[in-house]
Amino acid sequence: MPCLFKVLISLTIIIISYRILKHLSLALLAGIAVLVLWSGHSLESFWQIAWQRLAEANNLFLLLVVVQVIWLSNQMAQSGNMRALVQVLLNRLSKRTSIALLPALIGLLPMPGGAIFSAPLVADSDPDNSLPPLLKTQINYWFRHIWEYWWPLYPAVLLAMDVTGLPIAIFLIIQIPMSVIAITAGYFFLLRKVSATAAQTKESIHFGQFLHILMPILLVIFTYSFIKIFFPDVAQINKYLPIAIGILLAQLYLQWSRPLTLIFWKGILSQRKTYDLVIIVALVRIYGAFIEARLPGGTLLMDVIRNELSDWNIPIFAMIILIPFISGITTGLGIGFVGASFPIVMNLIGQNPSYTDLATTTVIAYAFGYMGMILSPVHVCLLVTNEYFKTSLYKSIASLIPTAITVLILGYLYYELLHFILGTFLTNMF
To answer: What is the pTM of this model?
Structure first.
C-alpha cells in the first residue's frame, strides 16, 4: 500500500476512534500505533523517536507555553478581566462582530494551541447561550487563524519567506488578500448565522480603562515582538522562550492589577483539564515526529509520498497544490507544511523561476497547505477547541469543508489574477 494511503488512513483512524471512544488521547494513540506499524518501525525505534521528540527543548517549552496559556486564560476569567473585555466589546459592537473579533485578536499571538485562550472569550460573547456549540467551535477556530497567511510573527510565514527568497514587503503584499478571502468565506458560512443585533448599549469607556483591560494580551504581543526584534539571541535559545516570557509578564501584571487569592490559584493550578490538554499536545507532537522521521530504510516519509505522486504521473501544478495540502493535513502545523513541502514545490518550478512564477506559486501552495492544516484532525487548535466546547471532531472538520473549498476556489482565482497582473506589469516594465 502506498505510504500516502497509510498516512491518510491513520488520520481517519484518529477521527473514527474519537467518535467511538470519546477520548481524544486514546484516539491519537490509535492513530500513532497504526502509523508506526505500517511504517515498519521496531519497538526500539518507536521509543527512540517518541522520546527524542518529547525530550527536545523546543517541545518542552511548547508544553510549558500551552500550560501558561491555559493558566492565563483561567486567571483572566477568575479575575473578571475576561468578562470586562467581552462586555466592553458587546457594549460597543454587535454580537456578530464581537464573537469574530476576539479570536482574531488572539490570532495575532503565535501561541501554540492559542484557540484555548480565545474559546472562553467566544463563549462569553454568547451570554444567553443561544448559539450551538458547533458554531462557536467553528468561529473560534476559523477566525483564530485568519492572519497566518502573512502575519510576520508566525514561524511558518518567516520560513516561507526564507525558502521562497521573496522580500518581506512583496510576501506581505501578495499574501494579505488571502486573509481577506478567509474573512469573507468565514463571514458567509459562519458569521451570518450569528444575530446582527446592535450593541447592547452605547456606554462610553475611557481609553485608559480599555487599555488596562486589554493589557495582558498586549503585553504578550509587545514582549514577543520586542524580544524577536531587539534580542534575537533570546529566541535562538528556544523559539518558544519569547512568548513564554510574554505570558509570564501578562500573568504578573494581571496578578498585580486584579489579584487572586491563594485559594483561586490552587484551583487554577490543579485543574485536571490543563494536564489532559498537555497530554493531547504531546501525542500530537509524537504523531508529527513519525511523519517527519526516516523510515527504517533511511528515506524520509514525505520524500516517499512525493515520489509516489511523481510515479503516478500527476501534473506539476497538481503536485504544487497536493504536496502542501497533504503536508498540512498530516502535520497540522503551519511550519510543518511549509517545511515539508515548500522546498519540494520551489524545485518543481525550476532552478531560476521568473518572479511571476515564484510569487504566484507561493500564493497557491501556501493556500492549499494552509487549508490542509485547517482540516487536519491533528491540529492542536482544533483539538483544544473541540475539547472546550465538547463538540465532535468529525463534525467540526466536515462542517468546515464548504468554507475551506470556497477559500481554495477564490484563492485559485486570485492566483490567476495575480499571474495576469504580474505578467503584464513585468512585461511592460522590461
So the answer is: 0.73
